[in-house]
Amino acid sequence: MFKFKPSVLTLALAAAGLPGMLWAQADEAATAAAADKSAVERPAATAQGAADASAAEKPAADKPAAKANDAEPMEVIEVTGYRRSLIDSLNAKRFGDTVSEQLSADDLGSLPDVSMADALTRLPGISAVRTGGQAAEINIRGMAGGFVFSTLNGREQVSTSGSRSIEFDQYPSELISSAAVYKSPKASLIEGGLAGTVELATASPLAAAKDQSFTANVRGMYNDRAGEVYGAEDYGSRVSFSYQGKFLDETLGLALGYARLDQPSVATQFIGLAYADNKDVDGKLDDIDGPDANPGNEYISEGFELQHLGGVEIRNGYMAALEWAPVDAFTLKADAFLSRFDSEAFARGFRVKLGGPTAAVANPVLDGNSVIGGTFNRTSQSYTRVELVNDDNQDFDAVDSYGLNANWQISETFRAAFDVSLSKASSDFRNGLLWSNVAVDANADKPMFDENVSISYLLNGLNLPDMGFSQADAFSDINRVMVSKYGIYPYENEDELTAYRLDLEYDFDSSWAQSLQFGVRWSDRTYSNDRSVFEYGNDGGFSSTEPPLRLTPEMVTKVDWQGDFSYFPSYLAIDLNQALNAWFPAGIPQPVQTWGNADGVLDPKGYTTNYSWSVLQSGEVYEEVLAAYVMLNIDAELGSVPLTGNIGVRRVDTSQSASMLQNVGGDPTLGAQYIVDENGIVNSLYAPTVVGIDYTDYLPSLNLNFKITDDSQIRFAAAKVMSRPPINRLAGDISASVNDDGEINGSSTNNPFLKPFYATQYDLSYEHYIEEGALVAALFYKNIDSFIDTVAIEEFDFRGNGFNVPAFIIDPVSGEQIETTNGTYTTAVNNTGGGYIRGVELAYTQVFASLPEPFDGLGVNASYSYTESEVQKLTSLGGDSVPQSLEGLSENVANLTLFYGYEGFDTRISARYRSDFVSEQVAINSQVVNFDAETVVDYQASYQVNDAFGVLFQVNNLTDEPTKSYFGTEAKTGTLQYFGRQFFLGFTYAM
């Protein structure tokens, strides 16, 4: 078997990052060695960006003499395909200068996963939160996606999520050539990753192995649960094309890529709602101490929902890169990445409203002081009812990333890199809700709401509940069901960031220091969200002014539940367009601006609802960041032990502010203005202003790598890290008012004055590289200073913090002036207690290439991580306040992939396990709940018919693993969501 010693450029590529952002071009001999496709020592490129380059990227003749240990031969094994990708990833990890995990594609377009979220979860210590059955948000070392910083080609990315958490399912794996997860930072990395930094890279055409290459991937898709959901799509497709070429004597490179995903969205779900009401249901005094004491009362859930979900998700991804190297000392690269992720989905079924404290409750079943079962009967005061729902949800997301990068070898010892980038994201989500209720007789001249409602249920923890309804037969009876309300709730957000970056590096001719890097980066970010609302009718009964709609047979279809849900009562699925056209023959009525209620709202049709929430939740956030760093790259010997790494510090100056609406009671002297939403509803109560803060941070970091033997090394890293608050939590949804005594009080869900999360972290790892794999063990510790919580601040200085409040008010009785005083401001703050996160990670990769045929195709890739934290929060969503672990933390996370390849045939099965954890509710984004443990199994098999053509079969979620959540204790069921298996069959073509 042919073996190599790695070239200098090979080691450089492994340590440095994205080839398209290197500081200089290597000489022809080194380039040829790096481009040799058969050499495993050509590691996968990662996306660390221009600032991560070191002296190793210079031509070999310009480097200081290599130490004796570096010149020793290294054993490498020739492998291809998936096994090759694993070895490439290990090489990149081995020669990197931080604690990291690497992921590489053997060729552009060859990663098999649906998105980068799936691909990243195969790395040690990485887990995912599934939404709609797909991995979207990733968690690193027990921390949620909001603490994960993400870049593409070394550039910060904004998100469609409305926060800072990147939705990785919007990044097609076919367009990503490599990825890295950096668990320890260094000064040259952009700040923001308290949990870690994920860096994605698209192709660098001049670094491609071939002068010309083309790859096509076509697959059909089938979901085996779609047949259980009326109106759902069974089949979908996945198509991708990519091209890379080098021209003009390899001085000009071009890469193009396109990937399309057209997949059915399918789920059947039960959703338990939070315990927001209370009532004495057992006639006993409860033994409760502390602030949650509520003697005599038990907590009651708002209700629950049973739904069929279906629809189509379409993602179109585009990638382009143009790279020009007219001379050896200069490289210019322009690249673009675009993703369009559109989904249109329905949610049908029924929503149960238990009726709260005014309902009549019989035979209650309790879990502690919370009611988890019983019979609820409607009274004249209660709102107990069952609503039939036919929701129509549309979500149109767009991600754009553009960049221009120049690298210049100014002299033999001095290099410069300049980068300019634009990252944009937008989301247009429209939630259309159609409510129906049960009438005594839908054919009556004046239909009456049926108030004879009785609901019996018993939760079964993480299994489906038992339930019965007095109106069960009516849910599918066209003579009983009437449409009673329609609502549209648009939510649009946009996020845009422009950044400029300059990085410089100077080499030393020294026995201990390799080079000095320093640079500066400036970014300007604007985030905006826009909420609005339109409603017609009444979801709790029948309105006399907006009467309900009689349904006709053409509008409805009777739907039966199937599978595990088959014992639930049938219901009517309503054709939304036919119903609306019949209800509003001229289309949905457009609101007309007319003076409405005393709340200062110009309301269509004289509604009495106060729509101020829609304007208060709309606004903009502005963020400017100026960062500078200096970092010394170390290349020394400690006794006889080679020592490499870096030490540096990053200074970050942040200026953040947000638009804000202050309730000034419509007083024009205090700046009150008319504010109009897109439906024409005008609010005149508020005065707009902009408030914010400036702050400076210093972030030191240290990374040391001790090469104790030719095959073993120990890494130590220490750093101060930060993550800014979710961008939407900086919005100014503030309400402040003055009472009759002149006291100013206010509240806000968010806070423009929030500062980042900070932590001090330490990493210690041991890496042992064997001939055909590696064994890695790591310890980590983070001490987090604080988290965001909502607190009441007494004697808050409203005027000093930018609030537009009066200096005095007029006593309505005496007419005298009353000087205003500061009262209480309830808002989000980040000075609540922090705590530690600590854990251990183990990883083992083995390619058994030295075994005799046919066993030489066997291999295993396994990892396990244990994470614990003292951080806990209290949750009262399940009634009594109970402790809840840190969001995103699973104590145990494990990944196992078994693979085999022989004479063109490759197969592998992968399992991802995470123990129970805390995250946002699947169907209710504002609720943080407990999730049950889950194991997701995927399978893939492929056969390479010839050098160009291959066939592939793939199954995602092989065991049909559901998502299950609960409120504090498993007895209080949250969401039980079943997605089905996804089957893929297709072919690949490469030339």
TrEMBL record:
Keywords: Cell outer membrane, Membrane, Receptor, Signal, TonB box. Belongs to the TonB-dependent receptor family. Residues 43-69 are annotated as: Disordered. InterPro entries: Beta-barrel_TonB, Beta-barrel_TonB_sf, Plug_dom, Plug_dom_sf, TonB_rcpt_bac. Its main location: membrane. Residues 101-196 form the TonB-dependent receptor plug domain. The keyword Signal applies. Residues 492-958 form the TonB-dependent receptor-like beta-barrel domain. Residues 1-26 form the signal peptide. It is found in: Cell outer membrane. Pfam families: Plug, TonB_dep_Rec_b-barrel. It comes from the Bacteria. It comes from Shewanella jiangmenensis. Residues 44-58 have a biased composition (Low complexity). The lineage of its organism: Bacteria, Pseudomonadati, Pseudomonadota, Gammaproteobacteria, Alteromonadales. This is TonB-dependent receptor.
